[in-house]
Amino acid sequence: MRKILGVGGAVIGLVLISAAQAAAQAGKFNDEWSATADCGGTAVDYTTTSWGTYVFKGGDGSRYSASSHNTTVWTNTATGKVVTAYQNMSSNGDVTVDADGQTYIALLAGATRFVDADGRTIASTAGSTKSTLVLDANGYYVSSDLDQHGRQEWVDFCQLLS
Known about the structure:
With 162 residues, this protein is mainly β.
């Protein structure tokens, strides 16, 4: 069973912010990606769009602030049922790079709202989620950890799509 915390596309959206981009100091991002997830043997296609801004503070890029807006559309390939997740994120955090070139980015994500095809809210999260995003020396995702605060709850998107 696949579960999603309120992080949604925010974590992946911030993959765009790597230490290599620190030299840019500030910028905007707008990215879209698609993939397929497995919901207990049922294929679920999803497309995430993430857009926002970032600013690196200090000459070494060790601090940043970012604002991200994320929309993920999930489609059950067997039934055609669609669920859309909306999330906004605003964060200030630390960026560190270890001796092996791995980058660690501290993140803070907010609530997520899930709606059906008619735009009705069918689930939501509240509170915040702290996470540390780890990227390899080439800027690719390695791992992340989560620390929930407030009323943040797991939302089983497979259940929402059944």
